[in-house]
Amino acid sequence: MATESKWDESIVFDSTHFRDFTEGDPYLETDVLSIFIENAPTYLEALKSAGPGEWRTCAHKLKGAARSIGAWNLAREAERAEHRNTLGLDDPDRNVFIQELHARLETLIRVLEDEILPDIARKTAS
To answer: 7-57, pLDDT tens digit by residue?
Structure first.
């Protein structure tokens, strides 16, 4: 069995990690988060139709995208999905993962759009 990460999944968005990743550049932060918000849902959509051979790759992409911005809550669940790389289209666990990933992604995007991006915009306006 694959070793699981030690990411704290109670953290929806780790702003300290993200600031370190972007070196505190608010313009880069805005660009990175905008790209994430645009692309991450496509990885989840790909999971919905992925066959057993594609499941792991799609989950890995979602995990990597979440991990890069410090979205530990989403990254941790995507990692669990990635480790279950043989889920067939009719496997009931598949829908459980997809529903949980969808809920976590929705929460993350809401936090980014309602809190983080407006805060970054205030910093660039001052």
So the answer is: 899 999 999 999 999 999 999 999 999 999 999 999 999 998 888 788 889
Determine how many CB atoms are found less than 10 A away from the CB of residue 108. Answer: 23
Distance CA 62, CA 35 (A): 13
Q: Tell me the Cα Rg of the chain.
A: 15
Could you give the 3-state DSSP secondary structure of residue 13? coil
Residue 43's alpha-carbon distances to 15, 20, 21, 122, 125, in angstroms, are 23, 25, 22, 30, 33
Torsion of CA 59, 33, 74, 16, to 10 degrees: 130
Convert the pLDDT of each residue in 63-122 to its tens digit: 999 999 999 999 999 999 998 876 666 778 888 999 999 999 999 999 999 999 999 999
CA gap 11, 7 in Å, rounded: 9
Q: pTM of the entire structure?
A: 0.91
Q: Which domains does the chain have, with CATH numbers?
A: 15-125 (1.20.120)
